[in-house]
Structures are given as C-alpha cells and as structure tokens.
From TrEMBL:
SMART domains in the record: FYVE
Protein name according to UniProt: FYVE-type domain-containing protein
Signal peptide range in chain numbering: none
Pfam families reported for this sequence: FYVE (PF01363)
GO molecular function: zinc ion binding
C-alpha cells in the first residue's frame, strides 16, 4: 500500500517536474518572446516616431494642399459665381439688345414699307409729270405751230387786204372805164388767184359760193352780185349775145 502510494507520489512528482520543466521552458520562451517584443517595440517605437513624424508631415502637407485646393476651389467657385453673374447679366443685356434690335427691325420694315409706298407714289407722280411734260411739249409745239399759222394768217390777211385794196382800186377803175365807154367794150379779167371774196358783197368764196367774172369790168363776183345780162359791143363794134355782168355795170348800161 505504501509502495503503491509511493509510486503514485513519484509519478505525481515526476509529472509535476515535467510540468515545471515545461513551465520553465515556456517561461524562458516567454521571456525571450517578451525580450524580442520589447526589442521589436523599441525598434517599432523609434520607427513609429519617424512614421508618425513622416505621417504628420505628409498629413500636414496634404492638409495644406487640401486647404490650397479648397481655397482654389473657393476662388474657382467665386469666379464661377462671378462668371455666372456676368453671364446672366450678359444674357439679360443680350435679350434687351435683341428686343431693341427687333423693335428697330420692325421700325425699319415699317420704314421700308413707307419707302416702297413713297416710291410707288413717286413713280405715279413721275408718270403723271412725264405725261404733263409730254402734254406741255405738245402744247408748246401746238403753240409754236399756231404761232407760225398765226404769222402766216397775218401775212395772208395782209396779202388779202392788199388784194382787197387792189380789187377796190380795180373796181373803181373798171367802174370809171365802164362809165366812160360809149359802146361798153369788155375790160380785162382779174385772175381767179387773187379773188377770195366777192367784190360787191365781200362774202367769201367756197364750194357753194363760186366765182364769176363780170364780162364788162372783168372783176370777180358771186352769183347773186353778177346775176345780170347785157349785150356788149365787141372789138369790131358789133353787138354780141347777152353775157353775165355785175350790178354796177348793168346799172351803168341801162
């Protein structure tokens, strides 16, 4: 019994010794591990300081860069807002200019329509003016022609007055000759070209009022003023057949 308990104790002691050995081994391992960790921690601590320093510098640089970007972004935003305001004002100004241009265009179109109407009126007035000018030219030519005709008429009237004077003189001479003739010899006949009016009644000759010579005095009379007949003595002193004579010659021979 004692042996058995001794064996159990030995076995338990052996087991505990083994455990103690293992624990010491683990302790040494843990001490080594802790030393390594402390060493690593020291290394990492120094490295971490540098890393933190580098990180801090990097973060500071990034923060500065971010602040610069933020400032630039803010400036760009301000510039964009300013540009937007300028663009808005520019658009409003353009819209106002467009409205003014549309009004000016409408006014110009109205002016163009008025101008076209004035051109049409001027065309009509020009046509009327040309027509009046043509009429004036024709009237001027007509006046010139009438002036020429008037001058010619005055010349003809003057010639007719001269002819009438000559005819009266011839009539007077013929009458005197007829009164002085004892036998009533026939006088010289006046040419038809100088007779435009009857020597007695002064009526103008035409298609119905024709010229007739008095066989005694030779002057030209109308039918009414020479509607008489007398038997005149010829050059041989013989009395011929009754012929047409004027009223004066007929009265002087009775």
């Amino acid at each position: 019994m004692y042996k058995r308990e001794s064996k159990e104790c030995e076995a338990l002691l052996k087991h505990k010794t083994e455990l103690l050995t293992k624990l010491e081994t683990q302790k040494e391992d843990m001490a080594n591990t802790i030393a390594n960790l402390e060493k690593t921690w020291s290394t990492d601590k120094s490295n971490l300081g540098e890393i933190l320093k580098n990180t801090s510098e990097t973060l500071s640089t990034q923060v500065n860069a971010s602040e610069e970007r933020a400032n630039r972004a803010e400036q760009r935003a301000i510039q964009a807002e300013t540009a937007t305001m300028i663009e808005r004002e520019w658009r409003v100004s353009l819209q106002q200019k467009e409205i003014k241009l549309k009004e000016q265009n409408a006014n110009l179109q109205s002016y163009v329509q008025d101008f076209k109407s004035e051109v049409q009126k001027n065309g009509k007035l020009k046509a009327e003016l040309d027509k009046l000018h043509h009429q004036w030219s024709e009237a001027q030519r007509t006046l010139e022609e009438l002036g020429v005709q008037l001058s010619e008429s005055k010349l003809k009237i003057s010639e007719l007055e001269d002819k009438e004077k000559r005819q009266k003189q011839l009539l007077q001479n013929s009458t005197m000759n007829a009164m002085n003739l004892t036998g009533g010899a026939a006088g010289i006949w006046a040419p038809d070209s100088i007779a435009t009016h009857c020597t007695a009644c002064k009526k103008e000759f035409n298609l119905t009022r024709r010229r007739h010579h008095c066989r005694s005095c030779g002057e030209i009379f109308c039918n009414s003023c020479s509607d008489h007949s007398l038997a005149l003595v010829n050059e041989n002193g013989q009395v011929g057949k009754p012929v047409r004579v004027c009223l004066v010659c007929f009265a002087s021979q009775k």
